[in-house]
Design a protein that fits this description.
- This protein has 131 residues and is of the alpha+beta class.
- It has a domain of 89 residues: Structural Genomics Hypothetical 15.5 Kd Protein In mrcA-pckA Intergenic Region, Chain A (Roll), CATH 3.10.290.10.
- 44% of the residues lie in helices and 19% in strands.
- It is built from five helices and seven strands.
- It has a five-stranded antiparallel beta sheet with strand order 3-2-5-6-7. Strands 1-4 form a two-stranded antiparallel ribbon.
- Helix 1 crosses helix 2.
- The termini are far apart.
């Protein structure tokens, strides 16, 4: 394999966008990864300088490839493989803040009911079944 080319799925895995190569392949096949604005296949060879659009969960990254690696390394090394655009960083931060604010406005259900609450619910349900 040439040093200046790496498979897209391997690069996404090495750059730590996805935990496993099969997850990266599934994301690529699902259209969540675009190379230079076009859909790609997992085996596509990527090169330094190409632009990628990646959707991971609710986050969207616009990056430019700065380095190639087919091996997964530590996170600080993985961050050196790409450069994220300023607009992408700003959008992700705004979306994250909106999610945090939305979570604060939702009522706190307190998790699972304890034994007392389960008994009360059971009595309530039995009472309503008789009606």
């Amino acid at each position: 394999m040439a040093d200046d080319r790496v498979r897209l799925d391997k690069w996404l895995w090495a750059a730590r966008f996805y935990k496993t190569r099969p997850l990266a392949q599934k994301a690529i096949d699902g259209g969540k990864v675009r190379v230079d604005g076009a859909r790609a296949k997992p085996g596509k060879q990527v090169q330094v300088g190409q632009k990628l659009e990646i959707k991971v969960g609710q986050d969207r990254f616009e990056i430019e490839i700065r380095g190639l690696s087919a091996k997964r390394g530590p996170a600080p090394v993985a961050r050196q493989l790409y450069e994220e655009s300023a607009g992408s960083i700003r959008e992700r931060e705004q979306a994250g803040e909106a999610r945090r604010l939305a979570a604060k406005s939702e009522p706190d259900m307190g998790g699972r009911p304890d034994s007392y609450q389960r008994r009360v619910l059971k009595r309530f349900k039995q009472k309503n079944e008789l009606l």
